[in-house]
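Escalation from tier 1.

The customer reports that the assembly of two entities below gives different structure tokens on two consecutive runs. Tier 1 could not reproduce it. I'm attaching the input and our single run for tier 2 to review.
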Amino acid sequence: MKTVSLISQLIIPLFILFTILYGCAKRVRVYDCFISGAKGGVGVVIRIFPYLLAIFVAVKAFQASGAFEFAQELLQGILEVFHVPIDVVSIALIKPLSGSASLGVFTNIVKTNGPDSLASLISAVIMGSAETTFYVLAIYLGAVGVKRTRYLVPVCVFADLVGIIISISIVKLFFPLG
Amino acid sequence: MNTVWVLLIVISIFFSFLNGRLDEFTKSIFEGAKSAVEVSLFLLGIVSLWLGITKIIENSGLIHRLSSFFQYFVRKLFKNIPPEHPAITSITFNFLANLFGLGNAATPLGIKAMQDLKALNPGRETITFEMMLFIIVNTASIQLIPFTVIGILADHGSKDPSAIVLPTLLATFLSALFALGILFAVRRVFK
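Tier 1 run:
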């Protein structure tokens, strides 16, 4: 744990130091290089912006409309059959859509159920093993402006679903008493 | 994405009508627009920063050394990337940044990787299999230690916050493997 945390802290400073020193050793004008590279950032972000806008508006609207609560109620019945805490539904639904919102939902689950409850443990594993899929899709597809994504989106959604089932099963295996 | 977007918007309007939340709907789309601007401003900073740093890597020739070093690993998965292509390095950097939970570096480097992959097939509007593969690995979110999650558990007085590390790692790797499996299986069907 401690070593990994230390490596995480060291990796970026060391990497930047190495890059700059290597550039200097090769007699590259490091500062001018950095500036000319950074110039490209504006273009990239402008290209991505409309994609981000589209997905953020849709996700916010979906949360505000109450459709979210409806989907939750729908799924609760299924989860009860498998003895999975109801709160897991909200984290499983929100994680692919929004990073900041899922963090809020997760904190709330930990607060209301206690940090060592089954609901908190399952949510923690889902938080760590799932990604904000639609944000990633919007940014990476926007960056290159591809229009036809073939079967990518359905595969992502299906993989997310399986990932959540895997997370729940693993927690139930690891913490059988819950 | 078209289907996803249409579904999200239409379902939202339908439900806000049913729940009498039309006002909230209108408010939420402006709020969404606002957070898109905030996130873009944030991205503008970190993307430019990392593009500046990668430019040094490219101009100093470090990129050729790095890509010839990493290509053995990356080319196992991405078979159609030519040797010493810049995409090899940017893909590796993105994976490493993800592995160590460095989200602020992972996204800009991922954008760079997507553009490098696009350079292999310029002018095409259809996604390539390599791009799909790259996105799938990214959405699987392979991370060694989920620091944020552990932090929250510890803040609320968990007995053993790091107990979730092993199950999370296992869940991540299994779902990544499964996602890749689905992708390769679907490719066979659509070929």
